[in-house]
Amino acid sequence: MGGVSQYSERTARPRAERARHVADLLRQQITDDAFPGGLLPDEGTLGRHLGASRNAVREALGLLREEGLVTRRRGVGTSVVAPKLGHGLDRLAGLAETLAGHGTVTNEVRVAETVSATAAVADRLEVEPGDDVVRIERLRRLDDQPLSLDTSYLVADVGRRVLDADLVHRDVFAVIEEVTGGRLGRAEVAVHAVNADAGTARLLDVPAGAAVFAIERSTFLPGGRVVDVESLRIRADRLTLRATLHRGPAAG
Amino acid sequence: MGGVSQYSERTARPRAERARHVADLLRQQITDDAFPGGLLPDEGTLGRHLGASRNAVREALGLLREEGLVTRRRGVGTSVVAPKLGHGLDRLAGLAETLAGHGTVTNEVRVAETVSATAAVADRLEVEPGDDVVRIERLRRLDDQPLSLDTSYLVADVGRRVLDADLVHRDVFAVIEEVTGGRLGRAEVAVHAVNADAGTARLLDVPAGAAVFAIERSTFLPGGRVVDVESLRIRADRLTLRATLHRGPAAG
């Protein structure tokens, strides 16, 4: 008891907070592809559905426009720029594999070369500094729209054979599996959100400073050997990371 | 064959790209808590370790400072602001549970009330519009530093009893489990990266526009009934989302 009474009651919520709540609900619906044809209802209808004033709805739509999720045009209304795509965090999959059915992934190969491992790369790839490693950088597009800027370092024996493959159309994961003759094992993934620096923003075709995912991923063969370490920059206005989490038994 | 020759070779990489690569490597090391005492080596040492020029290192440290990861002080050098904390995306856990051992999580309860479900909230909670639901908004701090702004909507029968619990110190998940007398089942999670609006930024104590995680999470009881839907805003300069992904068998 006594739980509620100690909290400050706010009957008049600041408008900015109401707008944020409305934006959260709308983002969810946009992500779930809830608007047929990508056209949102008018502000009054949205307000009734969301339990919000027209002002809060207008402000929320402004936030979503800044996120690059919707466009607003006089006489037309508010449209979803493009449905956000889901990239599963449940299992290890390449981008082209994940987006099969949503369009064609093509890669601009910006770097594909053998280099000497710096100490930092050597650490991550579990080789010696100065050892040959293969570096691949690709700008990945879905139907001509940039989605992801991927830098990969691969161990030399596998990487050299990956260099011979069709890096314009294929996932590196698929190529590694072809080269090694078996499935990959697991990956350790760290997901960051960062403001895009000017160079990254230009390549990904987003405003400088736009929030993007920065993902560090180390991929291992089934035996536990690390084969590929990557830094990915992914447009967050176009891709959502999704996972199903299970609670499992209590610890201890 | 013919793989490499078709790619444009770039021997002179633009400095901004080199800086981004160096920043990626350093972010990884900061996340892995690789600098004892949080003090980074000088630019020359870092450059040798990372295989980069002092200029590229300086520019990379500038990017990381803008991300809020490091501070630079004349005569002292570059320090990690605070180690980035990992929040697992492998299993369902509350923030206080995840951060046990890293400090004390306390929650400023900004809203804790029974409200009528709007159509949008009713959809997500699988109740009828107008039904009572419980809304809780908390600003969550780790050792007095804001980490996360969480808005939860709970089904009324569970939520009313959650309102009586100690929401200042406890995870809502733990309270739900106490109230229902069993473990939670699973959650469906969608992770977005967005630029913080001014109000959120002020509450989380980050610059307006800073990249933050926006997470939508629906949590289910073991029988499959949805019990809690949440919108979380999480500081991305302080928290990294981590997962181990398994490849599994080939589809089809």
From TrEMBL, chains A, B:
Membrane listed as a keyword: no
InterPro entries recorded: Bact_HTH_transcr_reg, Chorismate_lyase_/UTRA_dom_sf, Tscrpt_reg_HTH_GntR, UTRA, WH-like_DNA-bd_sf, WH_DNA-bd_sf
UniProt superkingdom: Bacteria
Signal peptide: none
Keyword Transcription regulation: yes
Listed PROSITE patterns: HTH_GNTR
Residue span, HTH gntR-type domain: 16-83
Sorted UniProt keywords: DNA-binding, Transcription, Transcription regulation
Any Gene Ontology biological process: negative regulation of DNA-templated transcription
Gene Ontology MF: a single term: DNA binding
Protein name per Swiss-Prot or TrEMBL: Transcriptional regulator, GntR family
Species the sequence originates in: Jiangella alba
